[in-house]
Amino acid sequence: MADDFLNKLAQQANQQLGDNESPFKQKKEVTRPVQVRESTYKMVKDIAYHKDAKIVDVIDSMLKYAINSDEFSENNK
Question: What percent of the chain has pLDDT over 70?
Fold first, then answer.
Protein backbone atom coordinates (compact mmCIF):
# COMPACT_ATOMS: atom_id res chain seq x y z
CA MET A 1 0.00 0.00 0.00
CA ALA A 2 2.76 2.45 0.93
CA ASP A 3 4.58 1.36 -2.24
CA ASP A 4 1.66 2.52 -4.38
CA PHE A 5 1.63 5.91 -2.71
CA LEU A 6 5.37 6.34 -3.19
CA ASN A 7 5.18 5.28 -6.84
CA LYS A 8 2.40 7.79 -7.50
CA LEU A 9 4.35 10.48 -5.71
CA ALA A 10 7.48 9.68 -7.72
CA GLN A 11 5.56 9.76 -11.00
CA GLN A 12 4.00 13.09 -10.11
CA ALA A 13 7.38 14.53 -9.15
CA ASN A 14 8.92 13.35 -12.43
CA GLN A 15 6.10 14.93 -14.41
CA GLN A 16 6.45 18.24 -12.59
CA LEU A 17 10.21 18.31 -12.93
CA GLY A 18 10.17 17.39 -16.60
CA ASP A 19 13.64 17.39 -18.10
CA ASN A 20 16.18 16.95 -15.33
CA GLU A 21 18.86 18.82 -17.29
CA SER A 22 20.06 21.98 -15.60
CA PRO A 23 18.76 25.21 -17.18
CA PHE A 24 22.22 26.72 -16.59
CA LYS A 25 23.99 24.04 -18.60
CA GLN A 26 25.39 25.41 -21.82
CA LYS A 27 24.28 23.68 -24.97
CA LYS A 28 26.91 21.58 -26.65
CA GLU A 29 28.13 22.73 -30.01
CA VAL A 30 28.60 20.20 -32.77
CA THR A 31 32.25 19.30 -33.43
CA ARG A 32 33.93 18.18 -36.64
CA PRO A 33 37.00 16.04 -37.14
CA VAL A 34 40.09 17.79 -38.47
CA GLN A 35 43.41 16.43 -39.64
CA VAL A 36 46.57 17.37 -37.79
CA ARG A 37 50.05 15.99 -37.88
CA GLU A 38 50.79 13.36 -35.26
CA SER A 39 53.49 15.49 -33.63
CA THR A 40 51.11 18.46 -33.34
CA TYR A 41 48.39 16.23 -31.91
CA LYS A 42 50.77 14.94 -29.25
CA MET A 43 51.71 18.50 -28.26
CA VAL A 44 48.05 19.56 -28.06
CA LYS A 45 47.20 16.46 -26.05
CA ASP A 46 50.04 17.23 -23.63
CA ILE A 47 48.89 20.85 -23.25
CA ALA A 48 45.32 19.70 -22.59
CA TYR A 49 46.55 17.26 -19.95
CA HIS A 50 48.59 19.89 -18.12
CA LYS A 51 45.77 22.45 -18.26
CA ASP A 52 43.19 19.83 -17.25
CA ALA A 53 41.13 20.76 -20.30
CA LYS A 54 39.53 18.94 -23.20
CA ILE A 55 41.53 18.64 -26.39
CA VAL A 56 38.70 20.21 -28.39
CA ASP A 57 38.77 23.28 -26.11
CA VAL A 58 42.54 23.67 -26.46
CA ILE A 59 42.38 23.38 -30.24
CA ASP A 60 39.45 25.81 -30.37
CA SER A 61 41.39 28.34 -28.33
CA MET A 62 44.48 27.93 -30.51
CA LEU A 63 42.50 28.30 -33.73
CA LYS A 64 40.70 31.43 -32.48
CA TYR A 65 44.05 32.94 -31.48
CA ALA A 66 45.54 32.16 -34.90
CA ILE A 67 42.51 33.47 -36.79
CA ASN A 68 42.67 36.76 -34.87
CA SER A 69 46.41 37.14 -35.52
CA ASP A 70 47.89 39.27 -38.29
CA GLU A 71 48.62 36.13 -40.31
CA PHE A 72 44.96 35.79 -41.29
CA SER A 73 43.88 39.43 -41.29
CA GLU A 74 41.93 40.90 -44.20
CA ASN A 75 44.89 43.07 -45.26
CA ASN A 76 47.13 40.07 -45.95
CA LYS A 77 44.84 38.44 -48.52
Answer: 77
